[in-house]
């Protein structure tokens, strides 16, 4: 989809006066000087692929041959998949990044842990493990409905067919397998307000009058795409109005590259510098700020080195980088005049168990769904499998079918490379759906409502995190950990198209 003329909340955009977010391809990466310890001839592995229809799946297999000295690919043999003749087990050469050791069996503690709506899980189906999200917990038969984003399908599973989703990163499982009882207890008690600090605008304005006098050193953030959540050092030049200040950046320059950049900033985008924490040792899982390209960018510690350096993962750009202790600080939020440490990511309010109409297990995430014959010319919405656009839907119309699994669509708003003609594109049939049923929201959206936000000509899946004045809302996008402001008319209640019907998913529990 390289020809699409659109930008995503997930991707940093070029800025006229600021450098990019930490998504620098020239950044040195750790050199792999040895193979992962689990890679040995005959060793059992789980194998992933980028093939359409199989993304998000882990097939069982074993290692046949190890990579040569000038390659990072090895030969594997699948446990259940057969070759084209259907007689022998399939052997394939894959990159080591597509391999991981088998996830150990669940501990007794984890077997007793409740699976709730919103949990990321892996479901055992067609001899492989498929990544999905729990959408329903059924009281009647104790089964769980799991939604697979790659195929836009929902299937029911027993408890023994599910396991909690984990990532294999830096030779360890994330989250770790050896969670303590204390950690699990804390998880139940933590407040769900872990992403967006609940800031009172009137309190912030009152505090600003006292704290942000001319010459005061501050930090300033922006709503500009690609820079949400980053803080730049500055000083206050003067107060322009009740809500606006003229600030001068410490490290950012005007177009001439000489004079310090000056611009107006909203009072809600200004805060004092956070207190120093030089003696803190960072641990895996800590949320930190890393100083990069003249600003402080929020990230997560994913590895801790013996030399004191740490590996940082930036969710917005999906970039992994290493930093020394210098230039890092523990992330803090400025909330109503006080500094607060963030709560743990991923801890949300437990879902209420409900009983709903059964959803028949009649689809396979391993294969593309059967073609749903929309009439030629029918208005549809199209999703993308391109990285950075997974949670978006774009308006289009169906032009023609191409074979059993493909169709041609023409987008309403997206343009071809000439910038004039509507973009036409061949997509898989499981990427299209009818336009959702219109649901007029007379009453305001509520906090934690799951919504679609109209942004850059597409509808993006998000969650209402704060209700503002004048029918406006702050919406959080989980893929990028971004929060953007939208008016009521730019939002619609989120619905999923599953098994030929619309399922309303109005709350994130």
Automatic annotation (TrEMBL):
Pfam families linked to this entry: Agenet
Residue spans of biased composition, Acidic residues class: 178-192
Residue stretches making up the Agenet domain: 37-107, 113-170, 210-278, 280-336, 372-440, 443-499
InterPro entries noted in UniProt: Agenet-like_dom, Agenet_dom_plant
Composition bias type Polar residues, residue spans: 1-11
CDD domains: Tudor_Agenet_AtDUF_rpt1_3 (cd20405), Tudor_Agenet_AtDUF_rpt2_4 (cd20406)
Region described as Disordered: spans on this chain: 1-36, 173-192
Name used for this protein in its record: Agenet domain-containing protein
